[in-house]
Amino acid sequence: MQALPVVVPQSPLVALVGNPNCGKTALFNVLTGSRQKVANYAGVTVERKEGTLLTSSGSRIRILDLPGAYSLDALTPDEKVTADVLLGRRAGEVPPDLVVCVTDATNLRQNLRLVLSLKRLGLPMIVALNMTDIARRKGTPVSARRLAAELGVPVVETVGIKAAGATQLIEALQSASVPALKAAPVWRTPSAADIEQDQSEVRRILAAVGADRLEGTTFSDRVDAVVLHPLLGPVILAAILFLVFQAVFAWAQVPMDAIKFAVASFGDWVGQTLPQSLLKDLLVNGVLAGVGSVLVFLPQIIILFFFILLLEDSGYLPRAAFLLDRVMGSVGLSGRAFIPLLSSFACAIPGIMATRTIQNPRDRLTTIMIAPLMTCSARLPVYALIIGAFIPHRAIWGGLQLQGVVLFVLYIAGVVGAMGVAYVLKHTGSGTRFQALMLELPAYHWPSLRNLAIGLWQRVEIFLSRVGTIILALMVILWALSSYPLPPPGATGPAIQYSIAGHVGAWLAVIFAPIGFNWQISIALVPGLAAREVAVGALGTVYALSATGTDVSGALTPLIAQSWSLPTALSLLAWYVFAPQCLATLATVKRETNSWRYPAIMAGYLFGLAYAGSWVTYRIALALTG
Amino acid sequence: MGTILIYDNTMKSKQSAAVRPADIQLAELATGKVARVVSVSAADAAAPVELGRRLAELGFLPGEAVRIVARGLMARDPIAVRIGTGTFALRLFEAACIRVCPEQPILG
Asked: B73 and chain A: CB distance < 8 Å anywhere?
C-alpha cells in the first residue's frame, strides 16, 4: 500500500453490519486489502476491526468490520460490540457516517429484517447484496434495482470472495454524500408486534422482487441427510478426526526428514567452517540445536491446519457441534461452547476470544476455563517429538499407524479432562439449566482454494515468526544461562551442570522427580512457560550442551530415546495434556475476564491436574514396565 | 433434565385440550414434514425471558414455513430446523417455545 501525500483530516467512517455469516469479513478484506480470518460459520469475527479503503480518486474511507448480529438488542458480548459502535456508545467514538448492511442474497428472508430495523435507526445506509454468484447459480437471482426500489435505499451487488467483487460497492461509497450532522441514533427494542410487522414487510418485498419461492430439498439438505444422520453422522465425524491424526504423521515424514537433513547439514558446515569459538558454540548448540528442533515440526502444523481450514470453510464445523451437542449438554456446557472449544485446537487464544458469542456469563467463564485443555497446535511439536522417540513406527490392525493412534488418544485425553472439569464446575455453581444452542447451520460451500492457501500461508508465517523471534531469543538466553558460569578447572561432568541453568534444573528436578522428570526436562519447562513448543527447542539446546561426546549435531529424537525411560516419556506427555505452559493464554484470560482472579485459578488448577496426571501416569507405567 | 418434561405424554394431552387441535410442538413434527409457525413464546416459566424474542429474531415468526431437517442421537436432542431459507440447531427446550401447524407438503 502506498502512503498518500495528503492526509485527509477526517476520513468518513463506514461500518459493515449484517447477520452472522453473510460475508462481511470477506467484503472487508476485498475493500481494505486485509486478510482477516473468514470461514463458513457464524461468529468468526468477534471484534471491531478497522481498515482503510483507498479509492481510485485518492480519497480514504475508513472501513469497520463488525461482529454479525441478528438484531441490535445485544445478548452476547460480540453483538454488544456491534450495537455499541452503531449507536455511538463507545467511549471517544462517534457513530459511523454510513452503514453498509451486508445481506446474503440466498437468505434474504432472514437478512431483510435487520435491514428494516437499521433503516429505522436513521443512519445513512447502503445495502450490499452479497453472494449474488451463489444466488445466480442456484437459479434464484435477486435484482438489486428492484430491491432498492422496494426498500427505498441504495442496493449494490457484491461477491465477497472475488477480488473484483466489490466494484459496485466502492463506486457507491465514493459517490455517497455524507451528512455533516451527527446525532447519535436511538435504538428502540422492537416489540413482538414490531417484529411480526417487519416480517410481513419482508414477505411483501420478497414477493415484489420475485424471491419468495422456498426451495424444496437443497444440496445442503442432501449432504445433511447423511452427515447429520443419527447413526452415520457420528461415524463420519470420528472417521474425519481419525484421518486428520493419521495424516499428521503419515504425510509429514518426507518433508520432516528433508528439514532435519538441511538443519544437520548446515550444522555440520558451520562446525567445520568456523573456528572453535563462542560464536560457533552459540550457533551450533544454542540456535541450531534449539530452533532447528522446533522447525522440524512445520510440516505437521501445516497438515493439521490444512484439515482445520477445510472443515471451517466447508460449513461442517457447526454440524459437528450439532452431533456432539448431547455430550456438551450432559456436562453442562452451552451448545455455543463448541466452536470456541474447536478453535482452541488451533490455539486457545482465538478460542477464548470466540467465547464472546456465549450469552450467559457463567457458561462463558466455564468455556474459557476449559479452553486450554483442548490440544492446541503448539503442543504438536512436543507430542510429535516424544511419540517419534518412544512409540514404534508400525502399523496395527487395519493399516492404522500406532503413532497416529497415540496422538489421537492424547487429543481425547484433553477433551475428557475438559468435560470432567466442566462437569465439576456445573455441580459447584448455580448455572442456568437453559444453555442456549440456537446455532446456525450454514449452507455447505466448496472450500475456496484461495482462502485455503492464504490461511495456510498465515499459519506458516505465524509459526516461522515465533521460531525466529520468541524461540530464537529464548534459546540464546538459555544457551547463555546454560554456559555460564564456566565449570571449575578439573570438573568432570558436562559444563552445563555448573551453569546457572544447571543449578536451577537440579533444584527443580527435586520437585519433578516424583513424576519422573530429569533435570534436563525440568530446565526445559521453564522457558517452555512462554510457549509450549519452546520446550522442544530448550530440550534441543540443553541436550546439545550436556552431550560430552562429539555427536552434538545429532538430532534430538535419538538423544531422548536413549536417555529417558518410557515412564518418563509418558509422564511428560501427560504433563503437556494439562499444564498451562503458555503465558499468552493466561494474559488473554486476564483481558477477557478483566480480572487476575481467573487466570490465577486457571494456572493453579491446570498445574495441579498436570502434576497429578503425570504422577499417576508415571507410577502406572513404572509398575507395568517393572 | 426438567426441560424435557414437556414432551411427556401426560403433559401433552393436558395441553392439547387447551389449544387448537391442529397445533403441535415443533419437536413433535415428523422429520421432513412442512409446517407453519403458529406461535413463539417461552414455554417454561424458568426459561430466560429473551428466549422467545431471540427465536423471533432468527425468523421463527407466525406464518413462516418450518421443517425438521435432522434430529440428534438418543433423546433426539438437539434438532436441526429449516426456517425460511436458514437452518438452525435448537435444543429441545428452545424448540419447546415454538408451536406449529402441519400442512400438506406443497413446498417440498
From this structure: yes
